[in-house]
Please model this.
Amino acid sequence: MNKLSKNRRVFGATFLFAVAALTLSASQSLAQSNEREQGVAAQTLLSEASELFNKQKLKASAKKVAEAEAILTPLSTSKTKATRVAAKKLLVKIRKAKQLLTSNGVPIPKVAAPPAAAIIKSPGKGANASSQEGSDTKNAMAAEGTVSFAKEIAPVLIENCLGCHGERRQRADLSMASFDAIEKGGNSGTLRRPAAPVLENLLIKKLRGLGDGEQMPLGEDPLPEETIKLIEAWLAAGAGFDGDDPAAPLADVVATFINKSLTGEQLFARREKSDQEKWSLAFPNVKTQTAKTTNFRLVASADSASLDAVAKNLEERLPKIIQELGLPKDANVKGGLSVFVVGRRFDYAEFCQMVEHRELPPGVTGHWQRSPIAPHILAMRPSNDEGDVQLQIRLNAQLASFLTSEFLSSRDNPLPEWFVVGTGHAIASRLAGKSNVTRGWTEKGKEILRGGFEPDEFFRGNLPPNESAPVSYVLASRLMGSPKRFRQLSNILQNGRPFEDAFKQVYRGSPMEVLASLARGREVK
Model:
């Protein structure tokens, strides 16, 4: 790849993130009417600059960048704090873009800030429309059926609709938290009818104030005319979905789209910043220590034991876990994986509640969370004499479970939880060798199997974690007793086969039959 091609990709990724960030925050951050207008004008210029750069029209792109900078510079000293923050973040992106342009021999011209009205027109009802050139570009894209839900529609809905129609609050029984929810609709029916004339779509009626009730978004200025026309163009082109999972939250859809445009290094740096934000949310007054390797970022309180050895061990174990799972040697998590270590159960529960918005299940000392925005592992450091060893085993188990879910499952073919949990613990045990920790897992699992155990309850997920995890471990350990068979299972799952079918093909029976054999103390043939 030549230097210009590489820089085009970096420039596009830089401004894709910048424009998305402003789209998500324009109404809240640029609170004053005039500042909001200027912010939208800057957004339009940045979007056009990115398009021009990708078309190798570098001088024209440089002019747009300079104009956007001239608009945002005064906003960076606004009396409104949120406005200052939003503008300063975009100015950082602009500085990087200027460096890319000048490295290609393109000077940045000195320009005065163009009036927002020259970029944004006001066609009535307070709505704003961008320059005709920008509208023509987007209308042409719409005519070709290339309006992107993930890139262009979802950010608008997140910013303007989820306050009243999100996961937690659903006025008129309408959720817009996911594409599936939008399609389902609420009391008045679905929001999208691709086969119908555009103006018959409930979403457009509400945005234009043509339907029953008040114009949406409720209590806010109407959306810019260009934005409404873009949504109309999306509907006219078939109202398609270009994300990975129509049931996923819209924020995940946008994050997945942005992540695909970023390099692994860019995503790693972005998530590193997110780690500190998560920690501050859970523990606002607790200073941190961090450790970083090629594939991991670790965060813990400053007064806990050093993380360097833990981080090094995780990096060393990663290739071995990948091998145990039968994955390609170059398998990796793009952007790396965040690992949070807490010292008390209270802190563990606080992180779950503040960051993950859920209650801590009883008996859990470590877990992982997949997320296109920022996946992570959370573990509690034991306070006993074997604390460091036990912590490492816990982290290895969670890492192996995370990778099992990441690479062996899919939305269409999910894995049962017992298999994910059990495989992670079984691999951690194999890596640990002789250990009191894993010996305890084995003894606990056998004790449960001998104590009037009901396999049906286990497979239905009705056992508490402190009982289901040991049984999952014993069952998965038996499956991994034959590495050849387990890797055969892994290969079949990587090719997209349903778990039950793949399991029967490899083990000549069902998981229930294998577990029943274990409960009777027999070997699996």
Summary: Residues 1-6, 12-33, 120-144 have pLDDT under 50 and may be disordered. The two ends are 53 Å apart (CA to CA). Strands lie at 288-292, 296-301, 337-342, 366-369, 376-380.
